[in-house]
Design a protein that fits this description.
- The complex is a heterodimer.
- Chain A is built from nine helices and ten strands.
- Chain A has helices at residues 49-56, 88-91, 98-103, 111-124, 140-153, 170-187, 198-204, 234-237, 239-252; strands at 4-15, 23-34, 38-42, 64-69, 72-73, 81-84, 158-162, 190-195, 207-211, 216-223.
- Chain A has a ten-stranded mixed β-sheet with strand order 5-4-1-2-10-9-3-8-7-6, with helices on both faces.
- In chain A, a hairpin with a 4-residue loop joins strand 9 and strand 10 (216-223).
- The termini of chain A are far apart.
- Helix content of chain B is 76%, strand content 0%.
- In chain B, helix 4 runs antiparallel to helix 5 (105-119) and helix 6 (127-134) packs across helix 7 (138-162).
- Classes of the chains: A alpha/beta, B mainly alpha.
């Protein structure tokens, strides 16, 4: 059985090709994501990480190259894929309460099934108590949990996360990182997460893909061989963690 | 607002209203002007028949009539019914067309100048030709009202639908929401604050257009009565109708306010905590 869940083959992207504002966002990027793996894409800001993520989600067509899921090139958004966006306040629907927000992508299911999935997903992210609130009544971290619950409720096999913790405070950020690890351990879901935080990428990933500044290319793929379950203290204090962090830092700051 | 705050507001409003009515009474009672009868003469025309050239009153002192007079059925109801149908038509056309145009940048580019051109016509200017084309009866009046008040709804719907947040559209795309459900679940709710603000502007305008549409080619209605009262120099009735119109305006505004608070509660409160 082929264990590759998602592969990015020679993807490049140019915005506004042939115009005065032509912008070469992605040079040429290739990598593979195995089933059940956590892959973090890290790079300097403006390196086309978000563009790459949108291409992987099938929201944009790349100027060149292909993205394949389970070996077949994608046409539009692939099945069994969900995404968590950076800006939770613009990703959730302010006119819906928390529960209907989570249930929104599940309308094709029977009502009981829908309710059960939302209940489970909200419990998984620790928001079981807050399903009657509006998203804007919650803190930033809690709103991002709602967005995560909405993504999990569709029971995807691939979860894309676009700088999901960039707009929350440090404490909330480490809580959410641990939540992602927990969910990954429980479900074995394939996760691709974009971040500009080197430490975060090493802490979460099986594989860190370091991108150069735009037009971005893969500088190096760092295989992170840290034991799981990981935790904020032991993992981050271990010498191998520091070694990977050192390597990634060197790549991105040279 | 607190309970006592609300009571206080009602008290101050009633207080100032009393002062205005008393002032009106004092000014007009001492005046010889035929055009400005005192309120003590005007108000009874709302509920008492006066014979001669007087129009049937809108209200009735009799509980067995449910306090409603012949004028209520013969003029008020037909007027409101025309207005309501015109307004409903404008709402349906405005939201429907506005959504279609809001979704398509190309369609907006093609129609933008047409909309601005047609919108610039002052609707009352069409009254005459309207009657020639559509004839008498309720139809032309309803179309005129709809034509006049559709613009705020149309333009606000276009704006609201066209400015749906890009990231929310991507959310809908990632979760493969079918287009029809994107419409009802994303585009319309997202545009609803703008749509409803357009509907509020249009509602006040619909009342004006209802009166104007009845100035010609009508045989009943509030506008018809205003015109008749003027031509017969029946000023007490004229003022009674104006008081009634003002009350209707207040009532419609209150209804709109209530509906808005119910539908857009999320928007008001969410705007307080963040800029959406």
């Amino acid at each position: 059985m082929n264990s590759t869940a998602l592969s990015v083959d020679s993807v490049g992207h140019v915005y506004g090709h042939g115009t005065a504002e032509q912008f070469h966002a992605i040079g040429e990027v290739s990598f593979e994501v195995d089933r059940g793996e956590v892959v973090c894409i890290v790079g300097p800001s403006g390196c086309g990480k978000s563009t790459l993520m949108r291409i992987m989600a099938g929201l944009m067509r790349p100027s060149s190259g292909t993205v394949s899921v389970d070996g077949s090139p994608i046409e539009g958004v692939p099945a069994d894929l969900a995404m968590v966006f950076q800006d939770y306040s613009r990703s959730l629907f302010p006119w819906l309460r928390v529960r209907p927000n989570v249930e929104y992508p599940l309308r094709h299911l029977a009502k009981a099934e829908r309710a059960q999935r939302a209940t489970d997903a909200l419990a998984d992210v620790g928001l079981g108590e807050h399903d009657r609130k509006y998203p804007w009544e919650l803190s930033g971290g809690m709103q991002q949990r709602v967005a995560l619950a909405r993504a999990l409720a569709v029971q995807p096999r691939i979860l894309l996360m676009d700088e999901p913790f960039a707009s929350v405070d440090a404490q909330t950020r480490s809580d959410l990182e641990d939540l992602v690890l927990e969910i990954h351990a429980e479900t074995g879901i394939t996760i691709v997460l974009v971040t500009h935080d080197i430490e975060e990428s090493v802490y979460l990933a099986d594989k860190v893909i370091a991108l150069s500044a735009q037009p971005s290319t893969v500088l190096e793929t760092i295989e992170v061989d840290l034991p799981r379950p990981r935790n904020q203290l032991d993992t981050k204090e271990s010498s191998s963690f520091l070694h990977y962090r050192h390597r990634a830092y060197e790549l991105l700051h040279r | 607002m607190s309970m006592s705050g609300r009571v206080w507001r009602v008290v101050t409003a009633l207080g100032s209203l009393t002062v205005v009515v008393i002032g009106w009474q004092l000014l007009t009672a001492s005046s010889e002007s035929y055009f400005f009868p005192p309120p003590s003469e005007v108000f009874p025309h709302l509920w008492r028949g006066h014979g001669g050239i007087a129009e049937p009153p809108y209200l009735s002192p009799s509980p067995s009539d449910l306090f409603l007079g012949a004028g209520f059925y013969e003029d008020l109801v037909p007027s409101m019914w025309r207005m309501l149908r015109g307004y409903a038509m404008a709402t349906a056309v405005g939201i429907g067309t506005g959504t279609a145009l809001g979704l398509s940048r190309a369609a907006r580019q093609y129609t933008d100048w047409i909309i601005n051109f047609v919108r610039a016509i002052p609707p009352p200017a069409l009254l005459g030709i309207w009657i020639v084309v559509f004839g008498l009866g309720d139809g032309p009046k309803i179309y005129l009202i709809a034509f006049a008040v559709v613009w705020p709804i149309l333009l606000n719907t276009i704006d609201g639908v066209a400015s749906v947040d890009e990231q929310r559209k991507q959310v809908a795309a990632v979760f493969k929401i079918p287009f029809r459900r994107q419409l009802t679940g994303l585009y319309l709710p997202s545009a609803s604050p703008k749509i409803i603000s357009g509907m509020r502007i249009s509602l006040g305008f619909a009342l004006i257009m209802m009166i104007i549409s009845e100035f010609a080619g009508a045989t009943n209605g509030l506008g018809f009565r205003l015109k008749e009262d003027l031509s017969f120099f029946n000023f007490p009735d004229l003022w009674a109708t104006m008081i009634l119109l003002s009350a209707i305006g207040l009532l419609l505004n209150g209804l709109m306010f209530w509906a808005e608070a119910r539908i857009l509660g999320w928007h008001r409160k969410a705007s307080e905590v963040s800029n959406l």
